[in-house]
Amino acid sequence: MIVKRQAIKLIFGAGALMLVGQLLMLRLLRPPVPFRLEPVSQFVNVTAAIPLPIILLDRAVLTQLSDMCPFCNLQHPVAFASLYKHIHEVQSLQSVLDASGFKSTILLNTLPVEPAAPKVVRDVPTGFLIAKDGVVIHLVLLHERADSYWWFGAVQSDFGIKQKLLDFGLPGHAPTLDIMIDEGAVDRFKGVLVEVQGLNLMVPSSINLYLEQRSSDHFIECSHSRAAAFFDEFGDDDSSEALKFKHKAWKLLTTAKQVLDQLNIPFWLSSGTCLGYYRQCDLITYSKDVDLGIMASDYSTNLIPEFQKRGFKLKHVFGRINDSFEISFVYDDLKLDLFFFYREGNSIWNGGTQAKSGLKFK
Fold it and tell me: What pTM does this model have?
């Protein structure tokens, strides 16, 4: 009798597993529900009436903009953005949307990745989730940082994000959002008005450049707590000479970035300049130079001429392109060192040459 009961349990268990498998298979084979454009159209009309400037940032839509129906197969919340400086209009938007049958909730930067992040980004609104008739719209707020880029927060920095996502029918543990999975930053860009499936929408004027930036947009806030500890122990050089160096160095960095971006050459802060960022969120004023790193494989023969066009004077070139290559320029009495890095197996190395002695280091 016991054996018979166990056999029956096994049969029922196997049947249940087969049923679950069949249901999952049917779900996978079921064609996706077509994206409903009406709520997006209503959202765009409401923002235009306020008026609140918005721009389409959804990569899935932007990459198919030339298609007849770029929204049709969208399976995640459609991403738009507005500037945080329009926050008063954004708050008006929420009340108007609520009156128009939309559901909305605000996203806040209550738990920033860097606890000692600047006050300008702590506890501030970073975006909104907006929904109607099963369509979810993700409105991102772009915050102006420094003079040249926009910062956006991470959804996980909102203390109550899990429940907010669930309330909008989104997975609470792995949000299917196009943007704000991590903190990010993009260079400021201009928009252009285009017609998309009957809607007049602003999109980035250079979609390819925007998409390229989004592929490496992860923003890492420097450790302001570490910097504070450093300055508490060693003090901060606020002499006129130090301030003059910083001004020149930032100007040099800005111009160098423009040249390398134009050449499509990725780069990073290297050596003493990287140490300054890591240790004190600033430049090391006694270093008197700026250091950048570049993969040797990204070198372009146009690099030196383009820097010279922008006012950089070539100081010296050490090594060869395939071994310990290094280029130095002078710009407004400051030296810029470009160190080239090489991939070797699982390691990356760079070489250096001592200017006076000619000694090489690896």
Answer: 0.83
